[in-house]
Structures are given as structure tokens and as C-alpha cells.
Amino acid sequence: MHEELENFERNHVWDLVESPQNCRPIGTKWVFKNKQGENGMVVRNKARLVAQGIYQKEGIDYEKTFAPVARLEAIRILLAFAASKGFKLQQMDVKSAFLNGFIEEKIKQRPEGTFVHQAKYTRDILKKFEMGDSKPMTTPMSTNTALNADEDGEAVDQKEF
């Protein structure tokens, strides 16, 4: 459990904040498991902090977690294919890789679709071009014009703005 919490701290992905009024927080729970060696002796105590799903029902995989693992045959096929095409492969430790990236994204699920908040991407682009200190600014826009792809490539009437 301490190792998992240290990963959160090291990767700067966990902040205690007030819950917004229009959002319902997702509950979490600790799942503990003893990893055993071939002789049945406990070789490692594992702890994972997992999100409690809204649709979980007691008695149906309620205490289980899932971690997809590639079969050895699939890895061998990937390596053979990469070698035949001259691809360069790199290996990385993914023990706590999930902590980077998706936690910073704000996603809303609504009946009309899934919406991703773009603030993180905007900040990253501004940082990349050394414009992180730029102030936000409103952009005037015609409210009567439909926002469709302009397949004909016609120029925008700049006098409207």
C-alpha cells in the first residue's frame, strides 16, 4: 500500500480537492492480495487502489480486479514481425505508467455523447511554444454561421470579425 501511495506522490497525480457541486465522486477501495511463489510461500503482499464501479453488483466479480496480460505467443509474433520489417522496439516499465496522462483529462459522459475537456492539451501546446504565461482572450464569432467543414475551400469573410 505504501508503494502504491509513493507512486501517486512521485508522479504528482493525487491531490485532495473539494468535490464540485455538480459532480458525484467515484468511490475507491484498497484490494489486497498475497502473491505466492511455487512452494506456496508468500513472496509479496500487493495492494492496489481501485475505483468502485457504479454498476457493480455484489456476488458478480465484486472482489476481483482485472489486469490484461499478453500471452507469450503474442509477444513472440510481435517480435518476429518487428524483426522482419526492421522496426525498432523499446521496452518500458509500466508498473505505474497508468498514472501519467489520463488522470489529468476531464471526461464527461452524457446521454448525447462523451466530452473531453481540452484544457490540458491547450496548456501543453502553450508550454511547447513558450507561451505558458499568455492570457486568455475571447474570439468573436458569428452565431448564425453553421460550423461545418468547408469542403469547397472558400475563404472566410474577415470583415465579419
From TrEMBL:
Compositionally biased intervals (Polar residues): 136-147
Top-level division of the source organism's lineage: Eukaryota
Residue ranges, annotated region (Disordered): 132-161
Reverse transcriptase Ty1/copia-type domain residues: 11-107
Name of protein: Reverse transcriptase Ty1/copia-type domain-containing protein
Phylogenetic placement of the source organism: Eukaryota, Viridiplantae, Streptophyta, Embryophyta, Tracheophyta
